[in-house]
From TrEMBL:
EC numbers: 5.6.2.4
UvrD-like helicase ATP-binding domain mapped to chain residues: 27-362
Upper lineage: Bacteria, Bacillati, Actinomycetota, Actinomycetes, Propionibacteriales
Top-level taxon of the source organism: Bacteria
Protein name from the UniProt record: DNA 3'-5' helicase
């Protein structure tokens, strides 16, 4: 997205001072904002707290510079992250220039030079215009999202091996790791060969690690050795993946940024050309830039002497407290080190401006946000140029006239109680007028897995609701069934997925029959079918073949090769119930039928599964689903599969499953999701909510272990898909492994846990500052899978404290006891669950109508009853019309 401005005629208005600016734009800027807007033409960084009007300030700075004659509009370059943000900044700049009268209508033209673009688009432009200087194609084909998974799965599928350590993983898991490691290499400008060398050095270091007091290798050291060995195998696959992209003429955004970094560093003419074209550079959301992006920008727009860029007017805008994308390569230290990396022409550190007046949220909501960010303000980030803690940074204030806002809190014994209460509150907020539109309300979760029960609760109340992003969709029950079936088509050892289907509402197999099926699977894995002592010998196989088969499985752990699907297809003579045996046979035949179609285009295969599972009929015939938009959500899932566009003719189911698994595991969105304009309550994770705002925001499940989560996923010592810390471009700003020993591992893990909790603090700060009028925090002690109750997190405690001052602690439960009430106090429930009598009656009636229609068609050639369509009720006519439309499309 861009704003394009031709060189305008003389401004219709010249700005002389800040009074002129305020008058021209009609905005009562604060002193903080005016300082940043009217700063001299030199490097500077604006620390813009949440809701402080950074976009307004950037647009006003362009107006000031153009209106005072310092630059022409086309000499200003603005970079941001998303197309949505670029479009917003573009529109704001265009509107501000015209409103201020510093350009005429004729000065704005869509065909002119770009002014605002994304960082990725900027890198693509550099490669397109200058890539040939380093031998790169000027216009390579861009791949992103699902396409990356398809290409990587092709590499994994074709890999010759042998892979001693990766072989324990499913192909989809290997695909995901290849992509993660490749992205980290590109984001930090590290060659795969350097990664290989580091892994070999670490293996030597671990060989010398001190043993325990018994002379044995520590368990954590063993894990580190295995991770290094896996990383060596992954590095070879990453090289193959990079070679495939080169051969096909394909690049990812990270590839283009890496090429742009090389151009910036190795071709000085590129920097000179850009500095001559763009006299002022604005860098939005700088806290989210990667090491490669920061290096590129530093080489392009700064330098050793003024003639080579030292002191070039670059303004970075961002908030280190909103740096929540470290998992995808962002280096929060970039904005803290900006003053050092982009010095003034006299080599002194560039100036830092602060925007702390929040114009979005009520003061009481800001009190909560400030409390949540207190640990961040008291912490000196590793590698920070300042020795002092960041006290005072990010402390938010509201204008004097701002309504106070409301902070509400509640705690519950169980998660279902919390979900029901949130449903009550959402309906009340809408009916009371506090949120006149459903779209004024959002529920922000820490995990995608929590979205499904909230969606079900709101749908049951006929509340329009939208799940934002793929991650939430993947946890809806019907979508889980589809993806489980896809995994079983791709992998016969996907036992958890088979259990999911067998115990679900469709097959309803009980625990006794499942236990028998598991025993049969173990017998088959051992080759010890109790009813056939030696199947190969009984079949007449020669002795040498029998011996070879025995040798092939000798020493194999049966638990590693157990396949419930094998048992499903060959259940043996176990004493199953008649119903279970019949259901096993039907499901086995169903899966065999689907596997015969596994080579179909993926969208066709997925649709076939939807029809085979009966979901298309279920979502129409079942009242619960008919009253919600569950069918629309299944359609959104199919759209996600359709977006898995093939660019090389070799799409794979493995790649699609890896794509889905990455979304489930990361829980943060493979790509930034954008809520639609649909009038509906928004359900999304906090990661997807950055940059958005609502009148009313709910933050559920604020309990220790949920939010904040202390789970460290980026420990390179144990995760082979993570780039070793010493190789990262921001190595001086992150914890390092100081010693290759068990003690060193323990110290490193402790520091990573501390950093993880600070990352959660940043996420909580972002979550709280999304609310304008009402912030609601809730929590619960028990879920069905817990053996011990959770405890309220520091985030819920902060919200409870503020809500208590306002008298808004609506419910404050204590744990009901040491035993889980969702397990011990629940009345005995039959399993399989009995069918709903009303639902069963409706299905029977529908089946009767269908059978009658079949007989009628055989007799008369028409499906319609004698009375014709006129006998249908109005609402039934609409349903039948939908059926007719679907049939027409199929035919």
């Amino acid at each position: 997205m861009s704003v394009s401005l031709l060189t305008p005629p003389a401004p219709t208005r010249r700005l002389r001072d800040t009074d002129d600016l305020v008058d021209a734009l009609g905005i009562a800027f604060s002193d903080q904002q005016l300082d940043a807007i009217t700063a001299p033409l030199e490097p500077g960084v604006i620390i813009a707290g949440a809701g402080s009007g950074k976009t307004t300030v950037m647009a006003a700075r362009v107006v000031w510079l153009v209106g005072t004659g310092a630059v022409r509009p086309e000499e200003v370059l603005g970079l941001t992250f998303t197309r949505k943000a670029a479009a917003e900044l573009s529109a704001r700049v265009r509107g501000a220039l015209l409103k201020a009268g510093v350009v005429s209508d004729r000065g704005v033209d869509e065909s002119g030079e770009q002014l605002v673009m994304t960082y990725d688009a900027f890198a693509a432009r550099l490669v397109s215009e200058h890539g040939l200087r380093l031998g790169y194609e000027a216009d390579p084909t861009m791949v992103s999202g699902a396409t990356r998974y398809r290409l990587a799965s092709r590499v994994v599928k074709a890999a010759a091996g042998p892979f001693e350590f990766l072989s324990r993983l499913r192909p989809a898991s290997v695909t995901e790791r290849v992509l993660k490691l490749d992205a980290e290499l590109q984001s930090h400008l590290v060659a795969a060969e350097a990664l290989d060398a580091q892994a070999r050095e670490m293996l030597l270091a671990w060989d010398s690690a001190p043993p325990n007091r018994y002379g044995n290798v520590y368990a954590d050291v063993k894990k580190a050795v295995i991770a290094a060995q896996e990383r060596l195998e992954l590095a070879s696959l990453v090289l193959d993946y990079q070679e495939l992209k080169r051969r096909l003429g394909l690049v990812e955004f990270a590839d283009q940024m890496a090429i742009a970094a090389r151009l910036a560093e190795e071709v000085p003419q590129v920097s000179a050309i850009l500095r001559a074209a763009f006299k002022v550079v604005l860098l939005d959301e700088y806290q989210d830039t990667s090491a490669a992006q920061a290096i590129t920008l530093r080489h392009l727009f700064s330098g050793p002497v003024p003639t080579l860029g030292l002191g070039h007017p670059v303004t970075a805008v961002g908030d280190p407290f909103q740096a929540i994308y470290g998992w995808r390569g962002a280096a929060a230290s970039n904005i803290l080190g900006f003053a050092r990396d982009f010095p003034r022409a006299d080599r002194s550190p560039s100036r830092r401006f602060a925007l702390t007046v929040n114009r979005r949220s009520g003061p009481t909501i800001l009190d909560v946000a400030n409390e949540l960010s207190r640990p961040l303000r008291a912490t000196t980030p590793p590698g920070s140029p300042d020795d002092a803690p960041q006290e005072g940074l990010g402390l938010l204030l509201a204008p004097d006239s701002t309504p106070p806002g409301t902070v509400r809190a509640a705690t519950f014994d169980t998660w279902p109680e919390e979900v029901r209460w949130i449903g009550d509150q959402i309906v009340a907020a809408h009916t009371s007028g506090q949120a006149p539109n459903w779209a004024d309300i959002a529920v922000l979760t820490r995990r995608n897995a929590d979205i499904a029960p909230l969606y079900a609760e709101l749908s049951a109340r006929d509340v329009p609701v939208e799940i934002v992003g793929l991650g939430g969709l993947l946890h809806l029950p019907e979508v889980v069934d589809v993806t489980a079936t896809l995994r079983l088509v791709a992998d016969v050892t996907a036992n958890p997925d088979l259990i999911r289907l067998l115990t679900g509402p469709r097959w309803q197999v009980g625990p006794r029959d499942l236990a028998l099926l598991g025993r049969r699977a173990r017998d088959l894995a051992r080759g010890g079918d109790p009813h056939r002592a030696d199947a190969a010998a009984d079949a007449g196989a020669p002795p040498d073949v029998v011996a070879a088969l025995s040798d092939a499985v000798a020493g194999v752990d049966p638990t590693e090769v157990v396949s419930l699907l094998d048992a499903l297809e060959s259940p043996g003579e176990e004493p199953y119930s008649p119903a279970a045996r019949e259901r096993f046979a039907r499901l086995a035949a169903e899966l065999a039928h689907l596997r015969r179609h596994s080579d179909e285009p993926l969208l066709d295969l997925t649709r076939r599964i939807v029809v085979t599972l009966g979901l298309d009929v279920e979502l129409v015939a079942t009242r619960e689903f008919e009253q919600s938009n569950r069918r629309d959500q299944l359609g959104a899932f199919l759209d996600a599969v359709a977006d898995y566009v093939d660019v090389d003719g070799e799409a794979s189911l493995t790649g699609l499953l890896a794509y889905f698994q990455a979304e489930i595991d990361q829980g943060a969105g493979l790509e930034q999701a954008v809520p639609s304009d649909r009038e509906a309550v928004k359900l999304l994770t906090v990661h997807k909510a950055k940059g958005l705002e609502w009148e009313v925001v709910f933050l559920p499940a604020l309990m220790k272990g949920v939010f904040p989560s202390d789970r460290v996923t980026d420990n390179w010592v144990t995760n082979p898909a993570v780039l070793p810390a010493e190789l990262r471009g921001d190595a001086d700003a992150i914890p390092q492994l100081e010693e290759a020993s068990n003690a060193g591992l323990a110290a490193y893990k402790a520091e990573l846990t501390r950093q993880q909790l600070l990352a959660e603090d940043r996420l909580a700060y972002v979550a709280a500052t999304r609310a304008r009028q009402l912030l609601v925090g809730t929590g619960h002690y028990w879920r069905a899978d817990l053996s011990r109750p959770r405890t309220p997190s520091v985030y819920l405690q902060a919200i409870l404290a503020e809500a208590g001052r306002q008298g808004e602690v609506v419910a404050e439960a204590k744990p009901s006891g040491p035993d889980n009430p969702l397990v011990t106090a629940a009345a005995p429930q039959p399993w399989p669950k009995p069918l709903d009598p009303d639902g069963w009656a409706r299905r029977q009636a529908a089946a009767g109508h269908v059978e009658a229609a079949r007989r009628r068609h055989a007799r008369t050639g028409s499906y319609e009853p004698a009375g014709g369509a006129e006998q249908l009720l109005l609402d039934a006519e609409e349903v039948v019309a939908g059926w007719d439309s679907d049939i027409d499309k199929l035919l």
